[in-house]
Write a structure and sequence with these properties.
Layout (H helix, E strand, L loop, with lengths): L9 E9 L11 H15 L3 E7 L2 H8 L5 E5 L18 E7 L3 E8 L2 H8 L17 H5 L3 E9 L2 E11 L6 H21 L5 E6 L16 H4 L9 H5 L5
Length: about 240
Amino acid sequence: DIPANETLDVMTWNMEFFGATITNFGPADVSLQAANALKVFQATLPDVIAVQEISDEALLADMLLQLPGYAVICSDRFSRSFEGPDSTFPPQKLCLIYNTEVIEILETKVLFEQIYDEARMGLNNLLDGYPSGTASSFWSSGRLPWLITAIADINGVKEKINFINIHAKSGAANEALARKRFDNQALKDTLDAFYPDANIILLGDYNDDLDESIGSGPSTYEVFISDSDFDGVTISLSEAGLRS
């Protein structure tokens, strides 16, 4: 019952190797994929859309030409991006689509970028205890959280908000869960230390439920959910057994 123009409407969507042309990664018909994605955006028109698994930035930008008033920016860090283009595996980029009348981007930042690059080159020991045994595996082999600081303007009421787009490690095996718990603890510690009073919306593909893990034990996001400063707004979907 609340008019959309009175609220900041936020959406997140893993777009399944959007635009990828390598066989077996995403839909085979990328033109149809783009057309259907456009229908979803036109039907919802949120102010902010955090998307994951963007393999073709140009296709996404072309699609958005049909969505007047929207712009897109993308992170340049994704799984194993430090190795350069891979002809056998498409990039899985993090991007942010936003309504330019509502959102003014102030700055963007790849979290852990320097620590990660130095650790995988052996220049620091901060990730020596990583559960996989290799520093390069941190945050799904370099799929580092991406922070976008913006001013949201809803009917003249302005708020500074930090959107963090993540695409966590997939899988329910014990090693995958251990990696996610390590990654999430590092993210939580960083936000506590450097953004203690900030407005934060943590978006993305969590690759886990919030009420309990998709594997065994508590959710790998328990470190966030157990902190009263964080509100797990989608936890009711997990508790109802729904996908989110």
